[in-house]
Design goal:
The protein is of the alpha+beta class. The chain has two helices and ten strands.
């Protein structure tokens, strides 16, 4: 039998999920990352894709933080390929000021990325010092002319296609289970 309270719980969870999805898309700039383990133990590469979702000034300069407690700062190595008119550099940490090492990227030719434009291929290799797997990193977007901060946030992992497909299949399975549980029992007539 259908329990209306269960429906309210599912509706509330769905609305909460939509609200979080909307909040995640509210960022003016997104920087997605893909993590790849390399052959050497503790050695990884992160590939970034920067997207201007709504920054009217354009995306022309960003930096990604590398916390020296988690990343071997001396191991940071730019490994980008095909990023065109962008200049990349690793900036050393300034522990006395609490500033982490940074991967700094600035547009050196042409217009900054306009709204809806992306640039992929930015990459950094490093040795990981943390216990768990490397994850999201803080990033900052600057105005190349005034040095003002235009946006800031955390990088977002690009889900693996197989895990996304598995998640969707699981969701479909739950929907099917919910649909069959709510069917009335068949009516049996005795003759």
């Amino acid at each position: 039998m259908w329990d209306g309270r269960l429906g309210l719980k599912w509706s509330g969870a769905l609305l909460l999920g939509i609200a979080f999805a909307g909040a995640a898309q509210a960022a003016a700039v997104t920087i997605d990352y893909e993590l790849t383990a390399l052959a050497a133990p503790g050695r990884y590469e992160i590939r970034y894709t920067a997207t201007n979702t709504s920054l009217a000034a354009g995306l022309g300069w960003f930096s990604v933080d590398f916390d020296p407690a988690l990343y071997d700062e001396s191991s940071l190595l730019i490994s980008s390929a095909g990023v065109g008119a962008w200049s990349e550099q690793i900036l050393a940490s300034l522990p006395i000021f609490g500033v982490p090492a940074q991967y700094d990227v600035i547009k050196t030719g042409g217009a900054p990325l306009g709204i809806g434009q992306s640039e992929a291929g930015f990459a950094v290799q490093f040795t990981w010092l943390g216990a768990a797997m490397p994850g999201a990193q803080a990033f900052t977007v600057y105005d190349p002319s005034s040095f003002n901060i235009l946006d800031a946030g955390f990088t977002t992992a690009v889900p693996e296609p197989s895990s996304t497909a598995q998640w969707l299949l699981g969701l479909l399975g739950l929907a099917g289970l919910a649909a069959t549980r709510n069917r009335p029992a068949p009516l049996v007539l005795n003759r």
